[in-house]
Fold each of these.
Amino acid sequence: MNQFLAASSRAFQWSSAVASSRAARRVPRGGVPSVIVLVAGAIIVLNYGLLYAGSVFVLSACYAIVTAGMAVQIGFSQQIAFSQSVFFGVGAYGVALLNTHAHLPVLLAGVVMVVAAALVALLLGSVVTRASGLALAVATLMLPLIAVGYVSGTDYLGGPVGSPLSGTLWPGSGSTTLVALGGGLIVVVLLAAVVLIASRILSSDIGLELFVLGVDERTAAALGVRTPRRKLELFVLGCVCAALGGVVYAGTQQFVPETVIDPATELALLIMLFIGGRRSPIGAVIGALVIQYLQGASNWVSVNILIVEGVLLTVVLLVDPEGIAGIASTGIAWLRRKPGPATVPAELGPAELAAAELTGEELAPADLAAVAADAEREAPDETAGRAARDATLLEVRGVFKEYGGLSVLHDVSLALPGRGLFALCGPNGAGKTTLLNVIGGSVPPSAGEVVLAGTDITRRPPHERFYQGISRTFQAVHLIKGRTVLDNVAVACLASHTASIVTRIGRSRLDAARAKAARALADLGMAHLAGREASSLTLETQRMVELARALAPGPRLLLLDEPASGLSEEQRQRLAALLVTLAERTCVLLVEHDLALVAQVSERIFVLSGGRLVFDGGPADFRSSPVVNSLLVGS
Amino acid sequence: MKFGNLLIAGITTGSIYAMFAVCVSVWYRVANILNLAVGDFAMVGALGVDNLYRVKGLPLPVAVITTLVVVAVFAYLYDQVVLRIAQDGRRPIEGIVVTFFFTFALSFFIDGVAKVLFGTDVHAAPTLWGGRALTLGSLNFARAGLLVLACAVIIGGAFWLYIRYTLGGKALEASGENSVGARIVGIDTRQYRRLIFVGTAVIAAVFGIVESPITGFTYLSGATISLTGFLAAAYGGFRKPGRALVAGLFIGVLEAMLGGYVSSEYGDTVLYAILAAAILAWPRALGFESAVSG
Amino acid sequence: MSAAGGDGAAGGTAARAALSVTGLSVAYGNVVAVHDATFAVAEGDACAITGPNGNGKSSILMGVTGMVRRRGEVAIFGTPARNGDVKWAARHGLTLVPERRQLYPELSTADNIVLGCYTWTRSIGKARRSDAYGRAVDLFPELRPHLKQLAGTLSGGQQQMVAIARGLAADPKILAVDEPCLGLAESVAKRVYDVLAQIHAAGTTLIVVEEAPRRALTLCNRRVEVRNGMAGAA
């Protein structure tokens, strides 16, 4: 009966993954928002293009191109870099210079400047994105300050006055109507393209990577996200969008005032982003429109725009931190809500299981094939693993670690074979977690080597080690808040480390990762939790989800930091059974305080004390060792 | 004696940066919010006193006290209305980014109101201690600068004594360190959030009043002041008021030296470039890593 | 619904109820952690709250001490406790030593302990001269050499002792200790339990939340078992 339940719930998971991918196939990812932008924008430009309302629309579309990029970089991935106004200025001033002095047509000058901006951003980004979080924010905060000081003192840029240009965005000459409407349409098309690209990136598997990166960079790295590369890509993406916005701004306004490069522009852009909805490209567009139209709404408003913006931003954020887009999506969800049972069943009841059985038969042959292929790809791995079971998988040679003169690890060496269960014990502060971090790559050793299957990985970053088969859990649970359990596990199944962010504009591999994650969850009997939001679970369940996440990619070496902490006796026994099964396929290294559990399951035990390895032996020796007894049992 | 005079000027502006940096970081410890509106309170202090004294013709002490009371009441109301809904409600708003934007919006709001009340011209509070600069050998001490330094020393010293020698001060420290642990011993962390917010607003206003005769303020000056305080606080990892103080002084002196010896025009540009490079070179040593994870 | 202390006191002891809890529920958002828990602890008892983790043991203490909002009645020595008011509970004798210690890592050990007095005084002099503070420090001779050290640099076991000392500085009649041995080596855990026994012997009512009943029952004479957020005497 239990097997049947498990099978049917697995089927349910697969079918829901398939269903979502089918729904996605009907409407291309990110298609809806960009089509809305395109159609609505074209209508507005064609009808009002020559009027004030139309020109405000074109101006806000210029800013919206920038904010849509910011939604990806700053809102969604939380890489806060204040580089937009600078690159907006680079685009705008560049086009003005090339047009006025080199007589290049605006469109061509625009292409040149966007490419140039990308190159500059690549150079600058490879320096500044080495910083994280607040350091990145503060370091890039200097950019507008430096830029404005430079521009206002530079004559050929027009100094404090600004720089005019004679050309227009619409190539060729024509009537003023044609030039105005044509230029507006070009802006709308570019904006729709940016929204499409942004939405497609965010809904892809790399979008999930970016979300994790935004929540916690270290966890992201441990789960195989190439954090330095992604941060650089995001920075370049943000800068390119900003430069593109600057280009079309110069082309449509035909004048570049010094204020575009002012820090105040940066602030204005951020206000647009946060009022519209920081995580959603379409929200960013809405924000730009709202702010621009507000400024011309009435005389009183335009005089007191600071008060209005301040109050509006406060109120919107109080109602929903996700801005107008967040409010709108809550509203839409509320309108769509069908009368009847709640959307996400906490626990699958008989009715849901019956439903699962029915939908389970709708599995498309193609998806089944994909699943089967997946399974096959794993199978040879396993035989290879069996062949190498007795060869040394992990070798730690003479590792030292010092923190500010304090020796945490002192000449630790150990070797683990390709499969089996090994435990690392020791009193608090003995350096157990540090050793795990050294193996996992999040902490570099002061001296010594870490060798995985014959390859020296001492200097390899954590995300590379993840793809070489090292998977881990954390002492404090690191699940990603705001995402479902399924997505939390899917993060570890992405296999997108070699892919560039650009490739995901084309297609997403998110469904494949989710299907793999659903299987990993089902294997641990947690399929029914797949749709739950991660932080709504109890801490113990979160721990199990984290274990599922560590197992999902099929690691060669599994590092578990106190997996039994906080579990009940019953749960501990189940965990022990699970670990024993796992150890038949992989090498498990366990940090644990529960000595009974350790002695029960592990075939070899290492004891650390004061950073030194003081014991290394089997469970029988472990129980009788005087060193262990005095250290850990205290008799 | 160019160096000596630059040093004096640097220490004077540095002490202002330092005080704003301390205001930012002390409140960040308690409330987990970066306050970008500190400088705007300084602007309101300066322009408010100027308006009441010069335009409305009130006696100077009355003008100063009225301005400070208005600032305090406004800060109190803001905490009671906006921050209470944002942080103490059923769905508290988390995340340093979003909460940062609340003070950002507050800054906009204050600037907008100041524009309506005080106009857009450059003004300054009247000089509290007028007269020629005091000289010692070839060193010049501007009286306004000395007043700023005196205020910095008095307020900073009082704050240090409060932290070091009273249980209330230690409770303040505790709520900055660990808010759950603070609540366990009955510390009302919200009360400290309010107290420090109102307190820093008033201190900022005082500094606006004593500093404005030196530079002059417009309704938009607040952002610049906040920015320098914010930068100095950043070098203390936002969580270490002591380091923020040192960083503020250092930035002030560096700015004066660059202005005096390198280029008066591009001095600030060079200063910002140096500060950015420092963060990128030693993020950990400057305390950024802990600020990110905390 | 206001259950007087006497009604809640189960077990037929003559002693009055130090703590009586009636129909306690605690929820975090949509997640109900404790559902309708009713139990009482008599004065002088050492009561263990046991049960698998994730079943709401800690949430009971959080609700009872007022760290989180609750539904239901809590009475401390017969007086109904105010909801969500930690200081009220502390002033009436109930102090919590929380899970994971919750110290202030960049304050000195002495400051960490003296802040326990914040529940009853604002004067640092009075706090340092008080019996409660003196007793709290004297109970842990091993902390003596570390009083000036930052608490964050202490070992896990020492930190646990600081947390207990801070609880004692509040001069409690009832000390609620949440998972005192979490993450501690066996030998240190033993020392923690020795101290708890000393505190109990000195007349303080103890409530210990412990996942492993074996250890708790070496000390406690009563036990409340929590399963799926429901508490019952066992």
Amino acid sequence: MTVGVVLVIALALAFDYTNGFHDAANSIATVTATRVLTPGYAVMWAAFFNFIAFLVFGTEVAATIATDVVDPASHVLTVGVIFAGLLGAIGWNLVTFYLGLPSSSSHALVGGMAGAAVARAGFDVLVPEGLRKIGVFIVLSPLVGLALALIVTVLIMWAFHRWRRVELLNRGFRRGQLLSAAAFSLGHGANDAQKTMGIIFALLIAAGRATPTSEVPLWVVLSAHTAIGLGTLRGGWRIVKTMGSKITRLQPVGGFAAESAAAATLFFTSGAGIPVSTTHTITGAIVGVGATRRLSAVRWGVARRVVVAWVLTIPGAFIVAFVSSKAVELFT
Amino acid sequence: MIDRRSVFFVLSAVVGASMIPLSGPDLRWVPEVVAVTYVVLAVLSFLDYESRRRGSLRRAATQWRTGPRRALRRRAARRAAATGR
């Protein structure tokens, strides 16, 4: 392996680390907002389940990222292009992190890869079917999370509305939240770590170390999960605050419902090989819990800011990666 | 007055339905289920809103019927207190 390939793999793992750092908020926001776990324990809990996700899920999302965004047959995905794509995604992540916006690292990655490839060889190298599948689930994942969270909350209310011992019920759901947070972290690890695996896999294909039909090597799987787990351990508190309390006020039952719904959505999409945003999914689920009371329980101003960040993410990362790719081209 | 939650669900159903032609045949069922679910949620939310509205209308009607009588009783009590009887 050349020094360039090793450096870009290191950068991809750094991106995975920032992804864990950025998205730790999603895994632990509700569990800390309802004071089930202290922030320190919450990040450890989430990081552990992020790491062990590779034991549960396959590598379908990695294959989608490696082969369904930019056509591998076009041979445009060189080390330099992947490097520029990662620069675009990391640059955009840092901007949104600084602004405290819960944007999607996943879509930054897709936008970055697309932007870097288009800068080199035009729009023809993109895979329309793959991008359409990703685009459709950009829209659907928060809607699925919202509907599932709403339905779970209503079912719980129906099941327990005659229950008089509210404190006991809250205690039960606090414990349940440990499970739901673990499930969500598992889904987060599965979907997001696989995106980095996909980048490294694309790099290995570009370097002639793998073919589009071969399996993702185990060292790639383990290193991606380790990087995201370590990133989650560091946590991103600015976004925890936005997700945990600014969208809607959550009780343990609401946190449980939101995380369970988001986890179910992530399990499905990871199984189907669809890279979705964990941020989109959990935000939709939190809004769903708020909507069981009334729509005014949701702070729409914050939700709107989140949506603006989502809309800007792919074009933003695309532009940063496009410019980076042109700059890399000048120097190589 | 309209139920804003129902409107939100109807809009979500429209967004879900608009994703159906864009989806591949293997995953087309997902936006279909999403659209149908939101239609059902919109209907249920509207029924919930209507039942609450009618409940509050009934309460208002009861208050309207009993309100003047209560006001007369209160006025009589005040007069009685003022004249010392």
